[in-house]
Predict the structure.
Amino acid sequence: MKKLFVIILLLILGGCSNGNKIEEKDTSKNETIIKEEKELKFVVAPQYEGKTSDLIELGKKLTKEHPELGSKGNMAIYFTGAVSDGRAALMLVNKTDVDIKKDLEFSLSWSYDGKTIFENQKISYTIKDSGELPSYTTTLILLPLNSEQLEIVDSMSDPSKMTLSMSDVKSVE
């Protein structure tokens, strides 16, 4: 009888210790792995590397202060609020996993308070002039404005009234 009692006790204790091991395995399976999003960096064309200007400083500042620009897996474009020598400074954001090493073309539509600035305007981003755009980087592009467009841009005061979009993005051989 004693032997039977000892065997049953060992089985019970053995069952308890196995339960603890299972519980430990379960808790390790439930650990959450948090992936840190890549840091967004500002880049300039090779001919401007090491140089500084108000626009380059603005690009660096906006990229640092607004890492939320763009959305993962997409390219986006934003108006920086700056105009220099009759050219609007727009920020091009590459949050794709692809380094842009070929020239790009895309269409740009931009309006403010119902007034059109650009409508499906073809824009060329050339590597020769603007440099490569690696994954998770931003850069500035400058678009010339005529007097009518400049007047609309200068009148902007409420960002909620502005629409800006890019479409038909394609690489050019």
About this structure: The two ends are 88 Å apart (CA to CA).
